Amino acid sequence: MTTLELRGLTKRYRVRGSGHMLALDDVDLSIASGRTVALVGQSGSGKSTIAKIITQLERETAGQVLLDGRPVPRRGKGLRAYRQQVRMVFQDPFASLNPYHTVRHHIARPLLLDRVVPREEVDAEVARLLERVRLEPELATRRPHELSGGQRQRIAIARALASRPSLLVADEPVSMLDVSIRLGVLNLLADLQEADGLGVLYITHDLATARHFSDEIVVLHHGRVVERGPSDDVILTPSHEYTRALRDASPDPDRHFGGGRTPDTIGSPS
Amino acid sequence: MRLLLRRAAFYLFTAWAAITINFFLPRMLKGDPVSAYLQKNQGKVSPEAADALRTLFGLDTGKSLAGQYLDYWKLLFSGDLGRSFSHGLAPVADVIASALPWTVGLVGIATVLSFVLGTTLGTLVGWFRGGRGDVIVPVATFFSAVPYFWMGLIAIAVFATGLGWFPASHAYGKGTTPEFSAQFIGEVIAHGTLPALTVVLASLGGWVLGMRNMMITVLDEDYVTVAQAKGLSRRRVVFAYAARNAVLPQLSSFALALGFIVGGTLVMELVFSYPGVGKLLLDATNAKDYPLMQGLFLVITLTVLVANLLADVAYAALDPRTRQGEV
Amino acid sequence: MFTNRKSITGLVILGLFALLAALADVIAPFGPLEKDYTALKQPPSATHWLGTTHLGEDIFSQIAYGTRGVLLVGLTAGVLATLVAVIVGVSAGFLPGWRGESLSALSNVFLVLPAIPLMIIVASQYDDPSLFLISAVLAITGWAWGARVLRAQTMSLRSRDFVQAARANGEPLWRIITVEMLPNLTAVIASSFVGTVTAAVLGLTTLAFIGVIPITNLNWGTILYWAQQNGAFPEFWWWYVPAGLAIALLGAALSLISFGIDEYVNPRLRSAGERARSRRRLQKKRTKRSPV
């Protein structure tokens, strides 16, 4: 059982000319293997910043990131071990794969970097991973521009799974895919999670899928956590004004529009 | 505004770098012709001139490098660039000052003309892309690869010696003294036409092609389609919408090309015996007139920097994005 | 990027020049400095295809042998300059903070310094510069442009997700730059290389024409230098016209290759012409059909 914990996470960006921008303000979050936590919020709420800090692409200004109670090492073998455990699936399937390299390259790299399998078995492992994400192994020789968005995103998932991590950060994994294939990819993620006992941080702005796929929902607004709880509770009986507005913003044919506030007019950064 | 300040700071830094390079240049050159010269002509050189020369060329073995560097700056600020060996010990600053206007005039007018003509032509060719105008691409490519000086030679052979339409060399007739008279100005224009024409023709191709490519890229943008759909006149769409945006990158490459243009025109001055700083530099090199060479390099570099700054100002004035502060 | 019409034309012309240089011994009927005192300043004829100089040297042979000097120096300078441009440009684009900024400032300084005056002053110092030295001088003044372009491209690549993904997977920096980023920069590097070679060829011939580069290095500029020094103007056109044409032709070929690469990189240029042409064809068909 692996747990990733964010304690009091704060991130301040320096903006040229006008001082600082507070992206995250004292955020507490915890993801455990076998469970899915959904991080919900509108654009600019800080969701991607959290993803970047978890994957060590950016450094927090204050607060801690703890894996199994211990702070993440900054360099060396400790950092490498951490990276093997915590992987990310990016939002844009068109940008997260290197247009120059084949599918095999993308999946083989983490296998070789983390020495998951001996060199001779890399090709077999690549084929196995492709099958796990429900793609034909023949795709290994193709390049990203020859594949559809859904296929690319599955390859991104295969790449993430290559190092046999215990935690997965999925940053809006289906936002840029056609609506018709979103469910397929999300179901795949759910199946993989169950099979491998992964802990998943599912970042999204879509409340419906958040409720469907996760055990817990955390609502982020202007860098602060405004509500958290079991998925059904948060959706059916939201306590914070913003959550309520988010829920109400989803079109419901039985409900009349008008009255109430829209999510983006609520609150303002201090 | 902030962007301009950053650019100004950059130019100041480059000017400092150029001056410092200029300081070290003669110290890296082989031999020591300056000392030899000073020894040979001891009686003719005034003490101040000799001091200036020693400072410029690091012959003050008594002082430290840092001390020499400071003396060099002091000298520059007093406008003293040494004495020219090949011009009877006239002050270098004066010699350069008499040649600089010719180069600036020729380069300035010819380059601006070429830029305006080339950009306009490129706009039209870009607008009518895929049509008959595209034949201009190979033509312009060929012309942009022709060396300035060779075109100058051909121009002289054909138009000056062959057809006799223009004088073959110099800025004004032999025996004429410079003055503000109509006749003198007429001579200047007559003598300057061929060199200017050569510069224009040789560089035209580059501007045409660059602008054409930029126009093609811009015309694909949605805002141009909207402008056409709104029913704006074709002329307005081409010039006020498309060309206005396409010309911006051209301006910045114009600024960068200035250094190269100056280099090309230097050689042209040799071909036409035009009394500009280019010919001066070449003559100085042949005569091993080091003070003049050093002074010329400095002046040429600073002139190019100023021209770059002006181009940047023009760019900032034209691009509304820079006016908002952060780009 | 090498399969469109422009590139192929350019490559063919370049190939012809390369053949000329390599097989000069076989193609040229005379040695470049072989003097024939019975045929001074002769116009083109059957024996001397491009005529002779004031010392009876065969001009065609001079051009053929001169190709070697031009191509060797041009390519060497191009390789040197591009190497420096890649190292400085990619590092400037990738390294954050003051390190990247100062590398960028360095290339900007070199960009603004006027090349030819600097080359004149430096080249005039040496009596018999080697091929390598000449190439080095040309490279010093020519690397900055490519560095600037590469920096811009690297900066835009650096923020792309696949680079971030590689970082998040723990790829070492050197692998990110060489394996992940560089292949995506090949088109820009190729374009910059061709541009630098063009500038080097022009620079070399210009310096030779001025006489700053000694005549021991035979290239087309040297031919023009001799032509000018020995009164070839304006009557003996066969002496000075071919050399200049050769420079222009080589430069045009290199430019064509560069345009071919540009069209490959910027697909809008590629498709713009095609769309306009097909639109015109369609219009012609329509007007033909309508009975008026």
Kindly describe this structure.
The complex is a heterotrimer of chains A (270), B (327) and C (292). Chain A is an alpha/beta fold and 270 residues long. Helix content of chain A is 34%, strand content 25%. Chain A has a single domain (3-257), classed as Rossmann fold (3-Layer(aba) Sandwich). Chain A has a six-stranded mixed beta sheet, sandwiched between helices. In chain A, helix 6 links the parallel strand 7 and strand 8 (199-204). Chain A is globular, with a radius of gyration of 19 Å. With 327 residues, chain B is mostly helical. With 292 residues, chain C is mostly helical. Chains in contact: A-C, B-C. At the B-C interface, helix 1, helix 6, helix 7, helix 8 and helix 10 of B face helix 4, helix 5, helix 8, helix 10 and helix 11 of C.
Quick structural summary:
Chain A: It holds the Pfam family ABC_tran. Chain A: Keywords: ATP-binding, Nucleotide-binding, Transport. The complex is a heterotrimer of chains A (270), B (327) and C (292). Chain A has 270 residues and is of the alpha/beta class.
Q: What is the N-to-C order of secondary-structure elements of chain C (H for helix, E for strand)?
A: HHHHHHHHHHH
Number of strands of chain C: 0
Broad shape of chain A:
globular
Percentage of β-strand residues of chain C: under 5%
Biggest interface and residues each: B-C, 60 and 56 residues
- What is the percentage of strand-forming residues of chain A? 25-35%
